[in-house]
TrEMBL record:
Belongs to the EPSP synthase family. This is 3-phosphoshikimate 1-carboxyvinyltransferase. Keywords: Amino-acid biosynthesis, Aromatic amino acid biosynthesis, Cytoplasm, Transferase. Pathway: Metabolic intermediate biosynthesis; chorismate biosynthesis; chorismate from D-erythrose 4-phosphate and phosphoenolpyruvate: step 6/7. NCBIfam families: aroA. Residues 13-439 form the Enolpyruvate transferase domain. It comes from Sphingomonas oligophenolica. Gene3D superfamilies: Enolpyruvate transferase domain. The gene is aroA. Monomer. InterPro entries: Enolpyruvate_Tfrase_dom, Enolpyruvate_Tfrase_sf, EPSP_synthase, EPSP_synthase_CS, RNA3'P_cycl/enolpyr_Trfase_a/b. Catalyzes the transfer of the enolpyruvyl moiety of phosphoenolpyruvate (PEP) to the 5-hydroxyl of shikimate-3-phosphate (S3P) to produce enolpyruvyl shikimate-3-phosphate and inorganic phosphate. HAMAP family: EPSP_synth.
Amino acid sequence: MPPSLPAPIEISPRGALTGRVRVPGDKSISHRALMFAALAVGTSRIEGLLEGHDVLATAAALRAMGATIDRDDDGTGSGTWRVDGVGVGGLLQPEIALDMGNSGTSTRLLMGLIASHPITATFVGDASLSARPMARAIEPLARMGAAITASPGGRLPLMVRGLCPAIPINYTLPVASAQVKSAVLIAGLNTRGITRVVEPVATRDHSERMLTGFGAALTVEQTNHGRIISITGEAELAPQAITVPGDPSSAAFWLVAGSIVPGSDIRIANVGLNPTRTGLIAALRLMGADITEIDPRTVGGEPVADLRVRHAPLTAIEVPPDLAPSMIDEYPVLFVAAAFAAGHTLARGAHELRVKESDRIAAMLTALTACGVPCEEFPDGLAITGTAGEAIPGGATIATLLDHRVAMSMAVAGLHAARPVTIDDASPVATSYPGFFASLDRLTGDET
Ligand code: S3P
């Protein structure tokens, strides 16, 4: 992805957010749809794919390994993606380094893909991704026989030399990570025998659902020690027609904006409501948010509904730590909701925030403090004292640190601030939500 120049944006209150918005396709599901389609024998079609930089990095890497991936434009702007897969075991040696940009999901899942193929690939990424820990994926994949040479600290750039046939393993996840779980399961696809992952704490289960849809022999067992996911290797995947639901992690920004800006009333169309992703909705409801689900349905094997959010007074809560895995990407915007609640919100139990696209505890502490919101830092979260619905002071420039969710969260905070909030670099939003600012303009009637 060509690096774009920093794009500062100043956000000031624009009044209520009203009307209808459609969020882009789910990022997690989009990555998986491309990867599994690239491993199927034949042509898959994907509707609603997220066309953000992260997912495009996955597409480029899969093309470099032999898959044919094209976008058919239907003239309405919403294209269908067509993927001609190479079959499990059929990936080719890439001739270039795989540029993962900002995307941890692309990196860890593709490491798993390569680990059981007879190919060698080098992974590179931007400054944010190159600071993130990869040992968590390296460790199980090395047990399966892959030879992985990483930069100091287990970081990118790194090189994976796959082993074929690889060795099936039984692996208990030491950290709750859907990326690591998925990396091992994906490596297991081309590994003779049964590869098992035990997850003591349930994480997003899109890989399990979609691999089953593609015809892999995959079982999930709920035990006292957690979920045991077993995949039978040397799988043959059948091509699919996939519809990607809207991303609840993108809907999160409108759920919070609608809750905190007086007079707001937003309908968010087609939001994925997989229970492993809905922690923020549960937390906001505990705070008193007015969120209703309309027309619940199933799309592509995932629960989906429209959501209506109306402005409501929020009250501080102690966020139940067991919600953390199902809202891990939503803490930055939850912290913003807490800044407008009455009282002292305590959100802990989320150590993993330290190793996301930025250290999201430190980044949001700095950002909210600069905007005049009293915060206290813990190793695993923040305590935040809210305004009970009043505007926050604002008047600061926010360092977004190549982190899309910090940028969008602080843009939401600026919608109810006494003085403007400046996002130093809004370009990272294109990793997950390229149309974010255009949708904000539409919801506030600022369209030109
Ligand atoms: C993802 C899993 C989560 C999440 C990330 C996407 C996925 O990461 O934070 O944005 O698609 O599997 P971890 O699995 O590292 O928690």
